[in-house]
Design a protein that fits this description.
mainly alpha
Length: 96
């Protein structure tokens, strides 16, 4: 199959030269791994499972207040928006 050349006045070369190299990707993955490790260590040190258990116990034993219902509704809207925008962004990238 033959490649087709389109005259773009060097635009493609300029874009390709500005893309991050493999080092940036490695640093990003390393940073992600470091943050995840810190989160797990803090969860264990601060006994996060106890906090989650206490929160669930409070949710089941106490009737929700109006503020809690509003906060929950806003949280669901924000999470839903993020999920939809992420999906649309990934679809847009696939189309390129």
């Amino acid at each position: 199959m033959q490649q087709m050349q389109v005259a773009d006045d060097g635009f493609t070369e300029r874009v390709m030269s500005r893309l991050p190299d493999g080092r940036a990707l490695r640093l990003s993955r390393l940073w992600t791994a470091l943050c995840l490790t810190v989160a797990v260590v803090l969860f264990v040190l601060l006994r996060g499972w106890e906090m989650i258990g206490y929160g669930l116990l409070m949710l089941t034993n106490c009737p929700p207040t109006q503020g809690q219902v509003l906060l929950t509704a806003v949280s669901f809207v924000v999470i839903g928006y993020l999920m939809v925008s992420d999906f649309l962004w990934r679809e847009r990238l696939r189309a390129l």
